[in-house]
Amino acid sequence: MDELLEKISHCVEFGKTDRSSPYPPDMKGQEGADELAKLALESGIKPGDILDKALIPAMSVVGDKFSRKVIYVPQMLMAAKAMSSAMKHLKPFFQSGETKRKGKFIIGTVAGDLHDIGKNLVSMMIEGGGWEVIDLGVDVNTDKFLKAIAENPDAVIGLSALLTTTMENMKKTVAVIREKHSGSKILVGGAPVTMDFCLKIGADFYSPDPQGAVNYLSRLVS
Ligand code: B1M
Fold first, then answer.
1. The domain 104-221 is classified under which CATH number: 3.40.50.280, 3.60.15.10, 3.30.2130.10, 3.20.20.150?
2. What are the distances in angstroms from CA 63 to CA 6, 66, 191, 198?
3. pLDDT in tens, 177-191
4. Residue 50 Cα, ligand 1 centroid: separation in angstroms?
5. What would the pLDDT profile of 136-190 be if each residue is shown by its tens digit?
6. Is there an atom of ligand 1 within 6 Å of 73 CB?
């Protein structure tokens, strides 16, 4: 069991999605996270163990390497792709409620902003950290956030902004969420966002990168 979980973890860390994927070159022709996760389930390994002992630790290493600039966006995207290929086999178990996740996380890029590369990385890392992610996409207005919160009142909310102009919309959205759902935790991020700005607009936390976001959520449930 441990050997199979280690192999899955290795595939995710190095972005090996499935047998046919040519990346990384030194694993060409080998099984990837997709086939190995399926095999693990068929061998009787619990979905929760695949998540907790293989996917989450691998994504945590990936997030840490990214924060330290040991790897860059392309490697991180490959790792996230490998993780998703394993997750597709686990999702039915989570959706049926047979296996529990840590909580829900609603994320979106704020109104007027179409940048989603960073937001998607954060979303994938948080999913890899064991959370159910409700990704509202880009150009998300306040009403759409409010609707998602009403449907998922315990969810933590994440707002991303890449433009100095749309930081103003982030501020407005945070203010309305605070007014209507005072207990909700709000995490903000994106290239122009800072801790100072986060505090000024009344959000709970700012992270400059995906791993910081995962760590923040982990602290909330620990
Ligand atoms: Co745009 N763009 N863009 N752009 N674009 C920037 C952001 C810009 C800095 C380029 C520049 O001028 N040097 C500039 C903003 C200037 C400013 O406001 N200060 C800019 C501009 C001006 C514009 C347009 C207005 C250009 C125009 O049309 N005149 C326009 C706006 C469109 C709109 O949104 N309404 C525009 C459009 C676009 C494209 C559509 C062409 C494309 C986006 C494609 C897409 O996202 N699908 C694009 C791109 C690609 C960029 C750059 C080149 C790259 C952004 C990116 O993806 N970075 C960018 C310049 C640059 O950064 N070099 C630029 C990689 C990504 C991994 O990083 O998104 O910062 P980032 O995410 C990081 C962290 O910030 C953090 O984690 C991620 C990983 O570390 N993070 C979070 C992000 N969200 C988080 C949320 C969290 C926590 C952490 O918690 C919830």
1. 3.40.50.280
2. 18, 5, 17, 22
3. 999 999 999 999 999
4. 34
5. 999 999 999 999 999 999 999 999 999 999 999 999 999 999 999 999 999 999 9
6. yes
pLDDT at residue 1, rounded to an integer: 60
Give CATH 3.40.50.280 domain extents, the chain. Answer: 104-221
Protein fold of 2-95: 1.10.1240
Residue 124, pLDDT score: 86
In sequence order, the 6+-apart residues with CB closer than 8 A to the CB of 38 are: 89
Residue whose Cα lies nearest atom 83 of ligand 1: it is 190
Cα 162 to ligand 1 centroid, rounded to whole Å: 5
Residue 116 CA to ligand 1 center (angstroms) comes to 8
- Spell out, as residue ranges, where the chain has pLDDT lower than 50: none
- Considering the chain, tell me which residue range(s) the CATH 1.10.1240.10 domain(s) occupy: 2-95
Q: Please give the distance, rounded to the nearest whole angstrom, from the Cα atom of residue 102 to the centre of ligand 1.
A: 29
Rounded Cα distance, 98 and 115, in Å: 35
Ligand 1 in reach of 170 Cβ (< 6 A): no
Atom of ligand 1 nearest to the CA of 159: 91
